[in-house]
């Protein structure tokens, strides 16, 4: 089996695992958790192996078409998609381990694992597809699974948050589907590489501008950029902690950041106007998200608002479109995935032990939950950009890139947003973990080892994350993803040569 043939397994195996779990159902509850951990570990090992293959041999293309025809469904793995695949696989595996103890509080836990695998399969499809309509199909698979997972606790507020996300997700999907229809009418193909070829030889068109606006609205909603962010502060707190970690750590990047980068840099092509929109929306998101986070007392809601702010940094870096700016953005995608997954798992640990996420009802948790307290402090320092943690390096690169590009106002806003983040997250440390222990919390204890281990691994990643900038490691993990964005039109040529 060639390496390219492995690409379909990233979609087929999670889907098959999800269907197998639904078939077994209540007859083997523990089987669902074992299967999920085995499949996510296998996916992680495969993704790391393919990362090495792509770095050595270049892009991989798998097609179901007959012979060299582009009419079939194609899957494409290049530096950007394998980078995202490693992130999805790593977070999915760690969250699957965490979920074993956490999700036992719920009934019918097998349904959680089935939906979890469906969500992973959908994200893998979005990342690897070379066909824009199939991107939409996988996007919907992910969204449907996510809606069910948000409402998994079957509480009234969870149903409300899931319904709100469903309505806004449908709106975003409508914009995306309309844009795809216009793209097909203009290019007569759904293959993204062929679309890129048509756009490369057609010049500027009014329909291209309209398509760009629709795509920014649709995928901007998936990325929770301001002003398309209204669903996120409700969805993240309502979902179980493992789902919140996937939503903030992975989903908004796979469905928002990745899709916008792929379509604009590799298919339609970026213009100064599009880059300006990315920088503006990114900066507004940084500031608005930071201000929203400061006013929250629910830990998960605070973290959700902080995610809006951190996505702003990523889009500012991408909008700068300089090698340094793109490096900072790509690096922050990975860093924020680790940091925010850690912080949401921490919030789940606090809720698991105390039964509440309200900071006004907490205090002195360090005395009973020292491991969670340490990992919370590490996550706080990392997301706030305090040296020597990983978040410091990616934020610093983005700020330096803005200064080097002459965007001093954007650089200043990035510094202010980082201070807002520090103020908001230190509130969790101050009111949740410091101070005297509340009498009603005297009975609590540290969470089980199965929940602590993923938190400790992610915390260690936050401490050592700066090592990814070491020459050699940077080229292996970040370099190819950066090249895909900076050399956008190469995607078209590399894909199409597989069909010649």
Order of SSEs, N→C?
HHEEHHHHHHHHHHHHHHHHH
For the termini, the CA-CA separation is 22 Å
Sequence of strands across the biggest β-sheet: 1-2
- Mean pLDDT, rounded to whole units? 88
Oligomeric state of this protein: single chain
- Gyration radius (Cα, Å) is 22 Å
Strand count, sense and closure of the main sheet? 2 strands, antiparallel
What is the beta-strand fraction? Answer: under 5%
Structural class of the secondary elements? mainly alpha
Q: List low-confidence stretches.
A: none
Percent of residues in helices comes to over 70%
Q: Number of DSSP strands?
A: 2
The 3D shape can be described as globular
> What's the tally of helices?
19
Structure described in brief:
74% of the residues lie in helices and 2% in strands.
What features would you describe in this structure?
- Helix 1 packs antiparallel against helix 4 (109-128), helix 7 packs parallel to helix 10 and helix 15 runs antiparallel to helix 16.
- This protein has 500 residues and is mainly α.
- Helices cover 74% and strands 2% of the residues.
- It has 19 helices and two strands.
- It is globular.
- Strands 1-2 form a two-stranded antiparallel ribbon.
- It has helices at residues 9-24, 29-57, 79-102, 109-128, 132-150, 156-187, 192-200, 206-223, 232-238, 241-268, 272-294, 299-320, 323-354, 370-383, 390-404, 408-433, 449-464, 473-486, 490-496; strands spanning 60-63, 74-77.
- The longest helix is centred in the middle third of the chain and has 32 residues, at 156-187.
């Amino acid at each position: 089996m060639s390496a390219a043939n492995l690409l379909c397994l990233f979609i087929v195996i999670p889907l098959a695992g999800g269907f197998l779990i639904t078939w077994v159902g209540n007859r083997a509850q523990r089987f669902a958790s074992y299967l999920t951990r085995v499949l996510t570990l296998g996916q992680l090992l495969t993704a790391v192996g393919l990362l090495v293959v792509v770095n050595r041999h270049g892009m991989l293309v798998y097609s179901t078409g007959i012979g060299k025809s582009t009419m079939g469904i194609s899957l494409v793995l290049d530096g950007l998609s394998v980078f995202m695949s490693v992130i999805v696989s790593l977070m999915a595996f760690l969250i699957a381990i965490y979920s074993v103890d956490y999700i036992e509080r719920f009934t019918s836990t097998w349904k959680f694992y089935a939906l979890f695998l469906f969500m992973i399969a959908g994200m893998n499809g979005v990342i690897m597809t070379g066909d824009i309509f199939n991107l939409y199909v996988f996007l919907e698979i992910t969204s449907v699974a996510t809606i069910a997972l948000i409402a998994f606790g079957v509480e009234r507020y969870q149903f409300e948050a899931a319904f709100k996300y469903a309505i806004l997700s449908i709106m975003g999907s409508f914009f995306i589907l309309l844009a795809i229809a216009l793209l097909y009418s203009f290019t007569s193909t759904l293959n993204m590489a062929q679309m890129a070829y048509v756009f490369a030889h057609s010049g500027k068109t009014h329909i291209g501008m309209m398509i760009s606006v629709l795509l920014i609205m649709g995928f901007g909603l998936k990325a929770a950029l301001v002003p398309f962010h209204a669903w996120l502060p409700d969805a993240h707190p309502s979902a179980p902690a493992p789902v919140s970690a996937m939503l903030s750590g992975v989903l908004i990047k796979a469905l928002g950041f990745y899709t916008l980068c792929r379509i604009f840099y590799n298919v339609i092509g970026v213009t100064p106007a599009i880059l300006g929109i990315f920088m503006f929306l990114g900066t507004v998101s940084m500031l608005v998200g930071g201000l929203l986070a400061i006013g929250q007392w629910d830990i998960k809601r605070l973290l959700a608002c902080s995610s809006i702010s951190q996505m702003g940094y990523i889009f500012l870096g991408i909008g700068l479109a300089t090698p340094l700016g793109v490096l900072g953005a790509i690096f922050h995608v990975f860093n924020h995935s680790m940091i925010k997954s850690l912080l949401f798992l921490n919030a789940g640990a606090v809720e698991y032990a105390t039964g509440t996420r309200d900071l006004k009802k907490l205090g002195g948790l360090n005395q009973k939950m020292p491991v969670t307290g340490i990992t919370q402090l590490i996550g706080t320092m990392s997301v706030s950009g305090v040296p020597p943690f990983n978040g410091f390096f990616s934020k610093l690169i983005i700020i330096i890139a803005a200064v080097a590009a002459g965007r001093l106002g954007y650089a200043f806003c990035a510094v202010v947003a980082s201070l807002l983040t520090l103020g908001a997250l230190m509130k969790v440390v101050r009111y949740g973990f410091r101070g005297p222990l509340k009498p009603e919390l005297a009975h609590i204890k540290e969470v089980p080892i199965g929940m602590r281990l993923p938190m400790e691994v992610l915390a260690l990643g936050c401490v050592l994350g700066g090592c990814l900038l070491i020459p050699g490691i940077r080229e292996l993990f970040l370099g190819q993803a950066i090249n895909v964005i900076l050399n956008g039109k190469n995607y078209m040529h590399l894909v199409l040569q597989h069909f010649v």
